[in-house]
């Protein structure tokens, strides 16, 4: 439906002092704190995790050497989505000198809507990361699971065995748990946390945990071991699109974790409709958010 004079009657009348509602500030591109961005030239992308070899056994004197087989573990698939939105202005509104004000004002509104959608879609991977039926990964389970299956028959866990709120103990336990992760054959991978991701409700807790030299909430004069050891080297960042006020997350140094593929960058265009005389505007982009290796993240939904 085109924007007509009837919808913007006040703009045609004298005495209007101000128009407002489209000039609010907006949060930045918060997905860049979590995702690795790559470009794509295909309708979808797939990434396959490989299994290496198990630990080398002892070769007894005179016995044959043992041989092992490498194989594929699982494949993660990224299906790109097209995101588009537009508006049009009637020929009559243009004739009555509303074109300049409307096109400038609403193209800004269009950009705001597109940016908002991208951040919501990026955060939805974390918001739904504890529900396997919504976002199952290449290994068949949710992003955050206590049982990511391994080729060796074991499992990795990138969430607490008992859901825990963000505090000193839960954060220390997460660091310890990440250090125990293994590859597909059970070999330690020396994983380490990088950055804490929290919703706005936990930003003050995160500051106390990561930006004080002494332990939080105790009468003891102990050092803050998390800070002293550099356990979370990149500090924390707030993601305003997280929907659970108790959930918290850690990015890790495990490669090929959360990824954002850009198939078609954001573009804007306009044209005139011959039959109606209306002018149409649209914004369009195509991308996908997801993960390849679930060990790129650790998460807790809170207690």
Give the number of DSSP strands. 12
Spans where pLDDT lies below 50 across 5 or more residues? none
Order of helices and strands: EEEEHHEEHEHHEEEEE
* Major pleated sheet: 4 strands, mixed
Strand order of the largest sheet: 1-10-11-4
* Whole-number mean pLDDT: 89
Number of helices: 5
Share of residues in strands: 25-35%
Q: Give the N-to-C terminal Cα separation.
A: 47 Å
Judged by helices, strands and strand pairing, the structural class is: alpha+beta
Helical residue percent? 10-25%
Radius of gyration: 26 Å
Global outline: flat
Describe what this molecule looks like in 3D.
- The chain is of the alpha+beta class.
- It is built from five helices and twelve strands.
- The strands form four sheets. The chain has a four-stranded mixed β-sheet.
- The longest helix is centred in the middle third of the chain and has 29 residues, at about 100-125.
- The radius of gyration is 26 Å and the shape is flat.
- The model has no long low-confidence stretch (mean pLDDT about 90).
Summary, kept brief:
The chain is of the alpha+beta class.
Short descriptors:
303 residues, alpha+beta, four-stranded mixed β-sheet, 12 strands
Task: Please render the helix and strand layout as text.
Layout: E1 36-39, E2 44-51, E3 71-79, E4 81-89, H1 91-95, H2 99-127, E5 148-149, E6 155-156, H3 168-179, E7 193-198, H4 203-210, H5 225-228, E8 236-238, E9 248-252, E10 258-272, E11 279-291, E12 297-300
Parallel strand pairs: 1-10, 7-8
Antiparallel strand pairs: 2-3, 4-11, 5-6, 7-9, 9-12, 10-11
């Amino acid at each position: 439906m085109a924007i007509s004079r009837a919808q913007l009657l006040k703009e045609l009348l004298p005495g209007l002092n101000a128009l407002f509602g489209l000039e609010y500030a907006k949060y930045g591109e918060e997905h860049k704190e979590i995702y690795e961005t790559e470009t794509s030239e295909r309708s979808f992308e797939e990434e396959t995790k490989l299994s290496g070899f198990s630990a080398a056994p002892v070769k007894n004197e005179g016995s044959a050497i043992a041989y092992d087989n490498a194989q594929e573990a699982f494949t993660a698939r990224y299906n790109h989505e097209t995101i588009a939105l537009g508006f049009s202005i009637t020929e009559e509104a243009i004739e009555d000198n509303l074109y300049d004000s409307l096109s400038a004002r609403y193209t800004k509104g269009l950009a705001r809507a597109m940016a908002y959608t991208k951040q919501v879609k990026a955060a939805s991977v974390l918001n739904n990361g504890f529900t396997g039926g919504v976002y199952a990964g290449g290994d068949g389970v949710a992003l955050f699971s206590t049982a990511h299956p391994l080729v060796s028959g074991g499992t990795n866990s990138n969430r607490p065995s008992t859901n825990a709120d963000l505090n000193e103990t839960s954060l220390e336990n997460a660091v310890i748990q990440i250090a125990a992760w293994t590859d597909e054959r059970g070999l330690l991978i020396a994983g380490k946390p990088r950055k804490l991701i929290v919703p706005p409700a936990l930003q003050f807790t995160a500051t106390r945990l990561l930006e004080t030299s002494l332990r939080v909430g105790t009468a003891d004069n102990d050092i803050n071991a998390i800070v002293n050891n550099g356990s979370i080297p990149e500090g924390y960042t707030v993601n305003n699109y997280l929907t659970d006020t108790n959930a918290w997350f850690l990015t890790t140094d495990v490669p090929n974790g959360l990824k954002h593929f850009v198939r078609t960058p954001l573009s804007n265009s306009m044209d005139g409709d011959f039959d109606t005389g209306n002018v149409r505007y649209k914004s369009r982009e195509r991308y996908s958010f997801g993960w390849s290796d679930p060990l790129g993240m650790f998460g807790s939904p809170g207690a």
